[in-house]
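This section describes the prediction task in plain terms. A model, or a person checking by hand, is given the sequence of a single protein chain and must write out its three-dimensional structure as a string of tokens. No templates, partner chains or ligands are provided. The sample shown here is typical of the held-out split.
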Amino acid sequence: MQDKIEEMHKDMTHIQNTIWNIYKTFLENQNKEEYNRKMVQLMEEYQKKGERWLFQFCKVQFICWEDVIYEFAKEFTKDQLRKKVKRER
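The expected answer:
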């Protein structure tokens, strides 16, 4: 029983750490398409494992982060437009 719990904890930790790394990469490169691709890859990884609850956990994390990424992407776009206007002046 304890081994199963440790394995579950390891998978949950992997999901959380991977999502955090995907998020940090998004902050650096502001590439929403890459963010989405990496999140889908992570969800597919856990879907293939056949553990429904892990896939659901991963999917819920994606849903929770999506609004954050969307708002940041809007701000990045606004900032890029401001910089472009300043350069054109």
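For orientation: The longest helix spans residues 52-88.
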